[in-house]
Amino acid sequence: MAGDLELRGYQEEVVERALRGENTIIWLPTGSGKTRAAVYVAKKHLDSTPGAKVVVLVNKVHLVVQLYTKEFEPHLGRDYTLVPVSGDSKEKDFFGPVLKDSDVVICTAQILYNAMTNMEEAKHVELSDITLLIIDECHNTHKESVYNKVMACYVEKKLKRELPLPQILGLTASPGTGGAKVLEKAVDHVLEICANLDSAIVSTKNYVSELKQKVPRPVKTFDIVEKRLVDPLRDHLKCMMEMIHEYMNIPPDFNLRACGTQEYEADVVILEQNGVGQNNRLLAQCALHLRQYNDALLINDTLQMMDAYRSLEEFYKNKSTRAIDGTDIFLVGLFEENRVELKKLARDPRYENPKMAMLETTLLKQFGPNVKSKGILFSKTRKSIYCLKEWVLGNEALREAGIKAAILTGAGNGITHMTQQKQTDTIRDFRDDKVNLLISTSVAEEGLDIPECNLVVRYGLLTNEIAQLQAGGRARAKESRYSVVADKGGKEVRRELTNECLEKLSIEAIARVQEMSIPEFRTKITQLQKEAVIFRKMTEAGKREKRGRNSAASVQLLCRNCLTVVARGCDIKLLDDVHYVNVNPDFKKHYRVGGEVMIGKSFEDWEPGRTINCSKCNQDWGFEMKYKKIALLPNVAIKKLALATPQGITTVKKWKDVPFPVEDFNLEEYCQDHLPDLFD
Predict the structure, then answer these.
(1) Is the pLDDT of residue 416 over 70?
(2) What pLDDT digit, counting tens, does each position of 214-243 carry?
(3) Domain that holds residue 308
(4) CATH no. for residue 486?
(5) What is the tens place of the pLDDT at every residue in 179-192?
(6) Are 265 and 294 in contact, with CB atoms under 8 Å apart?
């Protein structure tokens, strides 16, 4: 109930300026109650401001319901109308009326931005319609993030003196250093975040001891292992990679860095792009396969040897059925000739990854048959966490210790993604002790309402200081441990130590910013805001110029794998500002359909159909989508295509970056052109 909304001393201190109506960023560590402080500010704002409208922005879908049910509704629901709005809810399409009829709206930043940029009366909102804008995890307000797009609108209106504007309240555990390694640059980064949010950053000064008592830091340990002196699987994979190097005839001015590293992966990505751009399929395909071998080396370094072997085996399952030319015959043949030996080496227990044994020891220190523990095991990729779960389930010692593991990944549409409901169920099972070990990607580092843990393990993970700090903040039970399992002198240990230094640098930078006089601070952030507006306008002009560089009809779309021309740019239309679909019925000649796509949630206007693959090389392209139960439209991923423009062949990562204009999809025109029977 609202009467239960009491703050600790440090929370009262950090909300003082916000209660006076000032724009502020609350900087408090994970688990200290930043959101509770924001609820308090929202209540005081609603109580004292006629016609108050509070909007709470989050950057992940699952946080909409979490903040509504756990924080805002229990304390404000008796006196005020609250509405959670997510991408799955119908309210998103009528955001204007929803905001008008509500006191508090909790939504993703994308939904608010869509409403701000949509000119239909039923969907449009202005920033002036909002009186208090709360931004969760506000350190993400930078570059091209949706948070920053919302705040860019705010800043432009502020500079033009277009009032009224909402009060801003940001929440963060750390603004980070933005990659800066020296104090002056770190100060610049903190000021940039402040400028983007038009806010001063506040923290506790008088209640530091109370804060430390409430949020104790875990005991940190480095569980270090010696590297394998003998690794026949690694050696064999590298030998095969050398054979590919010789076959592909790498340009003499291109220097590949060491195999089995992230740097090597970056190099072969560039080689593949160069191969596509030069219409050199041999170079492109060899680079593509080398990336898979490099992935196997990275997996072999982190997980079990069989995991590395299976990653290659899975890749070549799809490659063995479609040989386009001699390049495919060589590459597939090389794997087939070595398959038996690779599998034999991967099964040899004498050379197994010693990090797995250390991980087992680390877990067994905290878990036992009569020990009540909770832990989170962080790893880098979805593939790695699935492998780790299989390893835990198959490990007799871990089973006897009572470990009950479950996976937690980000939400999405892929088969390895989780639905929002599955995330909720998994966290509930963790809270209810049905699960006591979460094996997670970075999704569990930030924002999720996860119970206190005794143990956090970072395994095969390289992240920045913000993610590291937030991961450590999950281990907030008494006498909790934070473990880094890594090779002696390895990159994980170096990054961990570097991040510790960056965390201290960030704290020092914040102190410098807080020491500025009010006139100096305001002058500085206004200058940064003006510079940001100019930069955005120049960037947008550059994008428009790029889009207008070619007519859509002059650009051909090629399958990125076999380099066959399969469509033209004018065949592509933008549907609902989200989906890029091919409306040319002749496109069906170039693909074959597979199984039904299972997404795990429903959408109002469309549903997924079957997968689509290149009819010539079997390259996966995307899937068909059924729109309004009328149109069956191929939804193709641009990263699976190459673009033949008058300037040459190129590739892009996202449809929004293609060098030609894309028209909006018009259902009526489509039906008249392609489904004339509907109009007879």
Answers:
(1) no
(2) 888 888 999 999 989 999 999 999 999 999
(3) 232-351
(4) 3.40.50.300
(5) 999 999 999 999 99
(6) yes
